[in-house]
Amino acid sequence: MGAQTAVKTVAGTELDLVTLGATQWINDLSNRGIFTTNTALVICSWNAWLVANTGLAADCAIGRSLFDLFPSIRDRGFDRYYREALGGESRILSESLHKYLIPIAIKGVAGGVEMSQSTRIGPIRSGDAIVGTVTAIDDVTERVVMERELRSRIAALDRARLIAEENSRLKDEFLATLSHEIRTPLNAVLGWTRILRTQQHLKSRDHALDVIERNAASQLRLIEDLLDTARVISGKLRLEVRTVRFEDVVQAAIEVVTPAATAKGIPITTSVDVLPTVQGDADRLQQVVWNLLSNAVKFTARGGHINVSAATAGDSVVLTVRDTGEGIDREFLPYVFDRFRQADASTSRRQGGLGLGLALVRQLVELHGGTVTADSAGIDTGTIFTVRLPAGQSESPPKAPWARDGAVTIRGLSVLVVEDDRDGRAMLVTILKNYGARVRAVASAASALRILAGQRFKPDVLLSDIGLSGTDGLALIEQIRGAASARMRRLPAIAVTAYANPEDRDRALRAGFQAHLPKPIDAQVLIQLIDQLRPRLSAAVKRRRQTARVAT
Length: 552
Prior knowledge:
Blueprint: H1 2-11, H2 17-28, E1 33-38, E2 43-46, H3 48-54, H4 58-61, H5 66-69, H6 71-75, H7 79-86, E3 91-93, H8 95-98, E4 117-126, E5 129-139, H9 141-198, H10 205-234, E6 242-244, H11 246-263, E7 268-272, E8 278-280, H12 282-298, E9 306-313, E10 316-323, H13 357-367, E11 371-375, E12 383-390, E13 414-418, H14 422-434, E14 438-442, H15 445-453, E15 461-464, H16 473-481, H17 486-489, E16 493-497, H18 502-511, E17 515-518, H19 523-532, H20 534-551
Parallel strand pairs: 7-9, 13-14, 13-15, 15-16, 16-17
Antiparallel strand pairs: 1-2, 1-5, 3-4, 4-5, 6-8, 9-10, 10-12, 11-12
């Protein structure tokens, strides 16, 4: 047999049957590569594993110099291990340090990836004499792959742990900041309210009312930012897209921020070109500009300066807000638009806020198909925010069909208010009466239906909360729209509610309301909404007056 011949070549003598059987097993059945050499490092045996994995037949390997057959062994400096073996020493070549001894491509893997090997090189002894070397090669590729996968999983777990720890830290910072941002305006609101109650002739009464209103508005902005963030995360933020004059949006935002800037002695200069229109939600775009300007005012010291410019650049409308304020640390700049991230989250920080304003800016801009960037040379060097939005057509958008010139009034109109919160009900009554309306207010849907079914009070418009106890506002308007009386079916109705999500607005309109006004309400917005329904109201008033003349 070939194996027998090979063995005889090594020893030069006949082997006993036990030795021959062991050699045959090594040749045919071993799950590792084994070859031997004489002292001249000429290959004397080459087992079946090596034939199968190298593709080199035993007859082609036996009788050839090891270094001639595999010159990379000498090129990589591994020849010294064979010299040491001939000197009587054994060496182990680990995969982690040496990778492989003989280049063997892994079968079925493209790109000629080398087999990972663990190799042992040792002497062959005959009595006290060393007559050659033996090399045993183990394929450890599978083990190496498993170890790499294990290390990868461990690294992934470590990264996940670090991310979880960072998120936990950010959550703790956010909750601490949220508590601070809620309690601070509440302290002012409650404090000044109690002062007004206990000191009837307080000289600074107007100042107290200003403080209460300002801090209540601050809380409202905080809640709106939280709700907007939740809508963005859940994918429920919807845009009312229409053609928008962007210069009007910029100017409106500047007008809102100017009083705060003036109070700090910060002039705002503007350079706004005549711009093409953009397709977007005017309110959300104004929120973008307002957030950037408010951020600039917040972080610019008294005596600083803010510049706002808007121009056309190619097929984009570009807004730039530049301030001379605190600037942004270069290391923090990549995170400036991240939610809940603040450059200074310590208890000694000089500025308030939840770290949501700029995150909302980026999210709203991206929803409009645009981009926003921030740049700063570092602390105390000011900041530049740049917003790019795709430009639309150049012509002006059409005027809203309900837009009216002159003062808005609802004098002479009859309004039915349905609100189960006593304080909220009293406030609505006061607002409506101050604008000249006749008002009837009730706390339940059942009471409202009784009034509508009667003849003593015939409302021209209905204002109803949604979250009423018992029968809610949606069920109320559905009953009104399904009533036998044509007057009730045509009654204009506005939902005045704390359910402020877009889905809540859709439900209210589908149920039968003509408009949806989220709480807390602005008196002028409420009156304007009623005025927008004036074509319906005018017809209702005319019918009532005609009925009154016939009765007389």
